[in-house]
Design brief:
2 copies of one chain form a homodimer.
Chain A lengths: L5 E6 L3 E7 L5 E8 L4 H19 L6 E6 L3 E2 L4 E2 L13 H8 L4 E6 H12 L8 E6 L3 E7 L2 E2 L30 H5 L1 H13 L6 H7 L6 H9 L3 H25 L3 E5 L6 H15 L2 H5 L2 E4 L6 H10 L2 H4 L4
Parallel strand pairs in A: 1-4, 4-7, 8-11, 11-12
Antiparallel strand pairs in A: 1-2, 2-3, 5-6, 8-9, 9-10
């Protein structure tokens, strides 16, 4: 068991989830900690969780170690650049640091959304698919692209920022600065914004959404519940989100002709509400062959997608691609 | 000279342009004929032009032969599927046919826009670039994508249909069925449509465009000329096209982070009018690193892009990729 243990680290702005796993993706041990502030804290917490999962898995060191980390980053050098969600971690050479800790291990670092795409590709809903888009629709909309079995990183290592493709130029402004990108129109945050607007509206049309939200701020789940009961305001919000999800999927089909689009993230849990009709619209309205040849399916790995993605990164999928 | 002659065939709906070239892309001979109607006519004309350029180049047969053909097609099998621009050529196994004619030659067939991308990649403005988008803005807007040195074909072989990405959902309807795709908003056809609308407008605002067009129907060139003289209606049309070109470029940067976007096609000849301000906007409004790291430059190969693209296809660039 000590041989062949692979470590995956899902490094996020709020939490670090580290797993020890077999190369087949069976998780042997996991540790989840809050992300400390600052460079030394982050590196120390990563190192401690790695030591803990290795200990629990009965391994002296990892055969390979992968990190999925927030962008922007340089995946070839394994260096974080200026990640806005990790203050103090500018120009952090993570690959070099962990190669120092574990000299025998292969170490790779990848953008978190790309890591997640590789995770679904190797272990989840994208298995066996050479042309794959992975999309997560939660507070934001992110993604990763695999084309011809190879991760598309682009020149800056940032490819796959599907959520910041403009689809409604006169739409609301996103924190990214653009107006009407997919994320600002259909993410969980966008749905919550529309829900708040409905609740605040003086004509009382938001009453059902407010009731569904209870004591919590209105969110996608409240909209889903109110829509299920036929509430007009909720259905209007759902229609807006579905419209832009459909355009987002359709644009990916036109540009990339994926065999499969794998959709994860919190909003996608209400699949029939927010995703299924958008998927249907996209497949019908894209060009005929690529539309027919693209399946749009739910992600498989749930909350482990980042950590198992980091395991796929550890196994070199970001550099070498994976056979279909 | 007989050794190593490569033949490229640019098979279009209206013309066939066939070249014999060196592997370095120096054209030794060329033949251009109108595309005949029907399967036998098309294949016969292709064969005749190949024989003619081989004769002129002093070669017995091609070392390799490539075809850039209208989609949809199956590039791996080298079969045209149901190309709307080539009636009678349904399920035409071009690769097999030309392998029969020239048993010693390597034969490849590729989607025409992808072939053009490979042509600019090997011989033109995309040389040495591993992450490249090629876009042609003429009567339509098409393109091809190279990521990590490899052509992105997608599952259906249709990847790169950049012009049919939706960027204005309430925009006019395209012949593709979608509303507000980039092509219907900023192609030469779209500019001509806006020019006709201006000329037809009862308020006389289209007078300068009409004068610039002279006896011809108003087109992008007439709009360019009227805009150069400061005409308000022409400048409005230019602004609309620039807006959507900017969004199109920006979306490509967000999704793919190309190191270079190579732009060709008739509309791009008025570079400073239709392209330069859009390129500037895209680089400024995309994410910081991929925006800064993306050059947007004019195509290099002019009217030979299709035929030289077919030469790159013959050399196997569609299957094997090309080193940076």
């Amino acid at each position: 068991m000590a041989h062949g243990v692979v470590v995956g680290i899902d490094l996020g702005g709020t939490k670090i989830l580290t797993v020890a796993a077999t190369p087949e993706g069976r998780i042997l041990a996991r540790r989840r900690v809050a992300t400390p502030t600052g460079r030394d804290g982050v590196v120390g917490a990563m190192r401690d969780t790695v030591a803990a999962v290795l200990g629990e898995a009965g391994a002296d060191g990892p055969a390979a170690l992968g990190v999925g980390a927030p962008g922007p980053m340089d995946p070839e050098a394994g260096v974080l650049l200026e990640p806005p969600n990790l203050p103090g971690c500018e120009n952090l050479p993570l690959a070099e640091i962990f190669r120092g800790y574990y000299p025998g291990a292969e170490v790779h670092v990848e953008n978190d959304a790309n890591a997640a795409a590789l995770g679904e590709r190797r272990f989840g809903a994208g298995r066996g698919v050479a042309d794959l888009c992975y999309i997560t629709i939660s507070t934001g909309i992110g993604g990763g692209i695999v084309a011809g079995g190879r991760l598309v990183r682009g020149a800056a290592g940032t490819a796959g920022e599907v959520g910041h493709m403009v689809v409604e130029p006169d739409g609301p402004q996103c924190h990214c600065g653009l107006h009407g990108c997919w994320e600002v129109l259909a993410s969980g945050t966008a749905i919550a914004r529309m829900a708040r607007e409905a609740v605040a509206s003086s004509d009382g049309s938001g009453a059902a959404i407010r009731a569904a939200a209870g004591d919590d701020p209105p969110d996608a789940r409240a909209v889903d519940a109110a829509a299920a009961a036929g509430d007009a305001a909720a259905l209007r919000i759902v229609r807006a989100a579905v419209r832009y999800n459909g355009i987002g999927f359709c644009n990916l089909i036109q540009l990339l002709s994926p065999a499969r689009i794998v959709v994860g993230g919190g909003v996608s849990r209400a699949w029939d509400r927010y995703i299924a009709p958008a998927a249907e619209w996209a497949r019908q309205n894209a060009f005929d062959r690529p539309g027919r040849m693209c399946e749009i399916v739910p992600a498989d790995l749930g909350d482990d997608v980042g950590a198992l993605g980091a395991v796929a990164v550890a196994l070199g999928d970001g550099d070498r691609g994976v056979g279909a």
